[in-house]
Amino acid sequence: MIPFKVVCGDCGKEVPSDEWQWRHDCGAALNIVFGLQGRKFGELIDVNEQSMKRYAQLLPVKQLPSAHHGWTPIVKQNIDGVEVNFKLEYLSLGGSFKDRGTYVSVAKAKELGLKGIIVDSSGNAGIGFSLMGLLSGIDVDVFISKDAPVGKKHLLRLLHAKVREVDGNRMDANREAIKASEWEGLAYVTQWWNPYFIEGENYGL
Q: What CATH number is given for 99-201 in this structure?
């Protein structure tokens, strides 16, 4: 892992990287800034790895989970004379591209010693967080709209997540998750604000 800073995307102030913070005190989102120190991006990729571990030096965590993530196949199709590449992310462990972000986020949560996290989701991100939480020994509370697909809610429960159904839409679930994180003392780990989630999704192989 190369050195990095966590900085506010608005005011530019740095926040500690050894504690969980999902947004800056000024209300803006946080960004991960790496110190490449003259090294080239390509030199930091382990070409012998066929998973997210290929980018271990470029991810802001000390140790990545043993679970295999990434390296989903690409299928080429010719559509009306145009070659189109389809990335089959549904073959990821949790069934969507959001597994990449949850993989890095939960690894960071474990590194920081978090025992439980709260997320809000319409389904896919919650499944990814719940899967990685189960594999990493971290409790996961998922706030989800009551109108979300029954199959997704069933899968969340199979993955040992605490499913909290919210009357209202996706934004209502978001607001309730943030409120719950404040009074329950659990880390709010969302794909919308979480800078570690974004870093995980940056790597598409």
A: 3.40.50.1100
Question: The pTM is what?
Answer: 0.91
Q: Beta partners for 120?
A: 143
Distance CA 189, CA 48 (A): 31
Give the span between the Cα atoms of 140 and 188, in whole angstroms: 10
Please give the C-alpha separations between residue 109 and each of 73, 80, 81, 121, 155, in angstroms, as whole numbers.
28, 46, 46, 18, 22
Residues 118-172: tens digit of each pLDDT: 999 988 999 999 999 999 999 999 999 999 999 999 999 999 999 999 999 999 9
Instruction: Give yes or no for a contact between 106 and 136, defined as CB atoms under 8 angstroms apart.
Output: yes
Q: Where are the domains of the chain?
A: 4-58, 99-201
Q: Could you tell me which of 134, 132, 188, 189 has the C-alpha nearest to residue 160?
A: 134
pLDDT single digits (tens) 17-35: 999 999 999 999 999 999 8
